[in-house]
Every structure is written in C-alpha cells, then in structure tokens.
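Input.
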Amino acid sequence: MSLGFFLWIDVEGAAEQVLAGAPEVLRRTLAVFIECETRPFWHEGGSAGTVVDTLLQAGFIPVARDREYGDEQFNILFVAGRAAHLLAPSLLDAHSPLRACLMPTRQTPPPPRKTGERLGATLK
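Output.
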C-alpha cells in the first residue's frame, strides 16, 4: 500500500491546469508545495485564488507561505487534511526543525556603514 505523494508544482503559471488534470493523484497526495501568482507573470497564467480554492476543495490545508517575489509570486505548502495531525506538533513547537525551516529566526542586521565605507574598506 502506498503512503501517498508529496507534490512540488512549479509550472510557470500553469498550476490551475495541472490541478485540473490531477484529481486522482490529489486523492493520494499528502502534501503539495505549489508556486502561485497574483498577477499574470506568464502568458495565460492562472491566479493564486483559483489554485488555493481548488486545493481547499480537495481537502488540503495551507500551512506555510514564502515571499519569492513579495505578494505577486510565492510558494504555498498545503497538507492533506487527513495528515495535518502529523505536522501539528512540529508546527507548534518553537524548537522543531520544521518550524525553524519555515520561520527562520531573524539575525541582527549589520551596523550602518559610514559615508564612503564599502565592504569593510574605508575610502580616504
């Protein structure tokens, strides 16, 4: 018996078409990592709203999102509702490797440079 699939869908604006042709695969999928756009990056590209609606209707839950290109192009990690309980402890534990990967800690920014200073060298 197969445990299921993990899908990574990055198809330059054709995510809607891929999902439309994948209902059987989605029924056996545990997680989907998918690139979405909110504006037409690609010729005849789809919208993030339609992609999200399709996956929600298929029983998936969004659990993380990045900002590849701000709010215009980004990736979303969806987990099948039937498998979400497996991730919940790791998403809620502040010290888990999964949470650290999804929400990296902020590093202290470097101090501001002085006028004329560049990459560690001062102009004279």
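The helical segments are 15-20, 23-27, 48-57, 84-92, 97-102.
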